[in-house]
Every structure is written in C-alpha cells, then in structure tokens.
Hints:
Layout: E1 5-9, E2 14-18, E3 23-37, E4 40-44, E5 48-52, E6 58-73, E7 86-89, H1 92-103, H2 110-124, E8 128-129, E9 132-134, H3 139-150, H4 158-165, H5 169-180, H6 184-201, H7 206-212, H8 218-229, E10 238-239, E11 244-245
Antiparallel strand pairs: 1-6, 2-6, 3-4, 3-5, 3-6, 4-9, 5-7, 7-8, 10-11
Helix pairs in contact: 1-2, 4-5, 7-8
Amino acid sequence: MAPTRTQRLASGGQIDAHRHDDxxxxxATRGVLSVTTDEGSWVAPGTRAIWVPAGTVHAHRAYGExxxxxxxxxxxxxxxxxxxxxxxxxxPLLCELIIAYAGDGSGDSPERARxxxxxxxxxxxxxxxxxxxxxxxxxxxxTVCAILQADPGDNRTLAxxxxxxxASDRTLSRMFRxxxxxxxxxxxxxxxxxxxxxxxxxxxxxxxxxHRCGWSSASAFIDVFRRTxxxxxxxxxxxxxxxxxxx
Length: 247
C-alpha cells in the first residue's frame, strides 16, 4: 500500500524505483522534487504536487533539503481519472490539507474521512501543469536529447544538432512530434525549466541560472518562469514561520 506520511530528505537524497498498488500524491513544501519513470521525469517546486497512479514504477529525488508529504489513496479513488504521473497546482488550501492528512499518518476516524473528502474535492479542482520531460524511444532522438540534457544552455538549432547526429532538422522535428508528442522548442523549454528548478534549489543566483539554462537574459528567464509557475524564481513557496503555503 502507498504510504501516507511526512518525511525529510537531504539534498540529493533518493527513494529508489518502486511501485504501489494504490495512487499516491507526492508533495514537497521545501526544496524541489522530481519523480522519474521509464517514460520521463516530472519536477515540482513547492507550489506543485505530483500525482503518481497506482502501479507506476517510479523513483524520487530531492534537490535542496526536502520536506516530503506522501498521501496514499486507494486505487478506487482516482479523482483525476489519470493513468500517468501528472504535476498539479497546489494552492494554500490544498497545501494545508495534504500536510494535515500526511502528518496524521493513518486511521479511519470520521474526522479523517471528512478531511480526505475535502482533499479529493480540491484535487479535482487543481489545474494540471505540463512540467514533464519525456524520454524518447527513437535512438537518434535519444542522442539529441542526451546532448541537451548534458548542457541545457546549448543554444544550437535543431538543424545544427541534426548535423552532429546525422539527421535533418525536418526528420528530427517529425520525431519530436511522433515520439514525444511535443515540438522541439516545447521539449527544450521543459528541460530548461526542470534544470532551472534544480539550480534554484541549490540557491544558484537567478542570473546564473538564466545563463546556464540558455535564456538570453535574466528578464527573459523570469518571464517564462512566472508564466509557468505563477511566481518569480526568487519567491518562496512555503512560509515556515506561519505554516501557510503561498500560491
């Protein structure tokens, strides 16, 4: 059964690949969390949680010290109707519900049942976020993606990358759409945001993050980050002094 608990992971800490018969909500109020499967990686700062469906083989990794809240739900309770991991927006109410439910551990009291019912209602209303870096299956595309994963700041065009791997930009463009269901610019932006969150968790200055991830300026990076996450890169996602999450 998927555990329901709160735990702390040190920066760089990992939970090895495993699976649960139940669904799980994985949420970090501090640090940045990633969930990885054979199909790709999902990443979430403190204003996002990751939904992991029952039966999914997955691993966790902490970037920055992580306060991790895990909520297990029976396979019969799938309020989102999702069969793949998904990043969800977490507002202040859902944040506190997850913390309270995970912190209480276990039990089947009427109060806990009501808490879970409200939590499920909030999950249904939670917007989904496309914070996913899918893993390609095409060998040539794997090579291109590996080049950029090694250096997200690499600004070469698809045609330039194609010359290195022996494929035309048109062929690679078709592969991105067919294999990953997204365009090359969309995939590269997801990769850069993923890498940016990891660097920010290590308290890397915003201007350095922008440069390392390939944005032309800090302001361009801040604009993309704000449009994606609803806050600036320097904003905290959780106020530990009050216990209230900041959306």
